[in-house]
Specification:
Length: about 190
């Protein structure tokens, strides 16, 4: 590519996509690509950390990953990836791509998903790191109740204080519930 286009028409950045600082690029980026399936989740989390600079993201992923990204609470696909991404993006599965559309053909179906940053409608998360810890702990062992899964982060009183049932399981809470819980924990335990 470098030889086909003059520098005024193409700026090529060669870097590790998982560590590349997207802040070096102009704002309102449009990301388009066929993501490597083996690093799709870490790459999506990396993109989410730059959501304020993104116009949108259109990527091809394994169909099952897209199902997890767009899942609803209390469904088998709903999990950490769902909550973390839905707290940042509005996501839409656009269409499925069969294996035969690729050379060589993968052993799985793929799907195109559109991610649009929530912008001003993004939930107000008081402490992003704490939010991520709460979500990770809630889904760390799916069969545990929140009382047990979050014992190292907060007590039952903190959960009840924000109208979360300590006997519930992580997969039953909505994204808004997780935001409310993390913000409540932050307010309760921050001096």
């Amino acid at each position: 590519m470098r030889g086909e286009f003059p520098p005024a028409q193409l700026t090529l950045h060669e870097a590790d996509a998982l560590t590349f600082d997207l802040a070096k690029l102009p704002e309102r980026l449009r990301v388009v690509g066929n993501l490597p399936y083996n690093i799709s989740s870490p790459l999506l989390f990396h993109l989410a950390s730059f959501a304020d600079r993104l116009a949108d993201v259109h990527v091809t992923l394994q169909k099952e990953v897209v199902a997890r990204m767009t899942a609803e609470p209390a469904t088998p696909d709903y999990g950490r990836l769902t909550v973390m991404l839905q707290a940042t993006f509005r996501m839409t599965r656009l269409f499925v791509i069969p294996p035969g559309a690729f050379r060589p053909a993968p052993k799985v179906d793929s799907a195109i998903v559109r991610l649009v940053p929530l912008g001003a409608t993004k939930p107000a998360i008081a402490d992003e790191a704490l939010f991520a810890r709460v979500v990770a702990a809630a889904f760390g062992q799916r069969r545990k109740t929140l009382r047990n899964a979050l014992a190292s982060i907060c007590d039952e009183g903190a959960m009840r204080g924000v109208r979360i049932d300590p006997a519930a399981r992580g997969e039953t809470l909505s994204v808004d519930d997780y935001v409310r819980l993390a913000n409540g924990v932050s307010a309760r335990y921050t001096p």
